[in-house]
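Pilot study result, target chain (458 residues):
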Amino acid sequence: MTTTGEDHEAVPTGPWWWARRRSAALDGGLALVSALECGAEGVPFARDAGIPASLGIVFGVLAGSVLLIRRRWPIAVVLVAIAITPAQMGFLMGIVGLYTLASCELPRRVIAALAGMSLVGTMIVTFVRVRQDMARGDLTLGNWFVPFAAVTTSLGLTAPPLLLGLYVGARRRLMESLRERADSLERELQLLAERAEERAEWARNEERTRIAREMHDVVAHRVSLMVVHAAALQAVARKDPEKAVKNAALVGDMGRQALTELREMLGVLRSTDGPAQPQAQPQPQTQTQAQTEASEQGAPGAPDAMPLAAVGAAAAAAASRAAGGAPEGPCLSELDELVGQSAAAGMAVDLSVQGAVRPYAAEVEQTAYRVVQEALTNVHKHAAGAKTYVRLAHRSAEIAMQVENEPPPEPASASAAGLPSGGNGLLGMRERVVALGGVFVSGPTDAGGFRVSAVIPA
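Predicted structure:
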């Protein structure tokens, strides 16, 4: 993992204000050299000032030792260097102090002011010393040499450490910025990887949900009709052999249709991570209780799971069709056959179609077909023998469907066929309709029956 400058500062290994022991050793060495230099220069300073040499040496050592605090208080080091410039001391301290000052995070105004003071101080002291030397005869050059020596000496002692410090400080800030940016990018990449993993897991779960819903639509209706026909076959096998043969043929046709659709679904199941968790088989319920409970499960009171599942279902279905993997499924032209199968199973079904029949998108037709199919399956399960009305309306911008059944003739025989119910049929219908931007409503009627209504944008 990339380490930023903040991480370096967060774990100091040196004493006091030093971040590392190596930095402390370097500053200690520089302070020792500066103290020796100023101590040696204190001897002529004491002679010129008329004080004891030992006092001059002590003063020089103390002044030179200030370089030890250059990282903590660089301004103080530069001010001391400027103060002892008239005594011709602290050349090393002035150079190192200016370099440290320029490389620190200080305002440019402060750096420029202190550098200017050091430049002017050095220039004045050099000008005076060179002129004194020429007056004593130590130098025999022309008068032009005095300002030249003052300017070149002051610039030589001030400009190089100042420019080097500015360069090193800018480079250090650039490196810290690059480290922080690299660390930020790495954190963003980790966050994106985590989000991608979450989205992949979400997509897998939604794909399982979609496949489970398809399996429910395929198996529930066909098998429910097969169970109803099998019960009728058992009842009339001895009394009416011809009807028994007809029912057996219907059971065989429906079984073959269910197997065909199951084979198509198995191709999709092979590409998933694993099967969905099985559900416990509930106890038989009356039609109103079972359908009402399932309707409550898909009601707007539980929006946390439904919208995500609906969007995932639509996206997965579109992706499957784009890849050419899964068939588009049934359409509205097969609605007469669907109603005829329920009528053959003994249900009194009335189909009415309003408006001009026209083709729709495959998703719309498949969803409308599945809504009617699941509603008829629920009638078989919970209201056997009840008269059912299937209404389909083709409108200008939408298609509406409604499946309503009357109360069953005998409430006790609502689950006489022994058909189990998991309570997921209405939830699956709602997810399909909402995924296409439609509206789904289900619930019991005042007469004691049950109504399923859906409107899907065309």
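One observation from the pilot: Residues 402 and 453 are 4 Å apart (CA to CA). A full batch analysis is planned for the follow-on phase.
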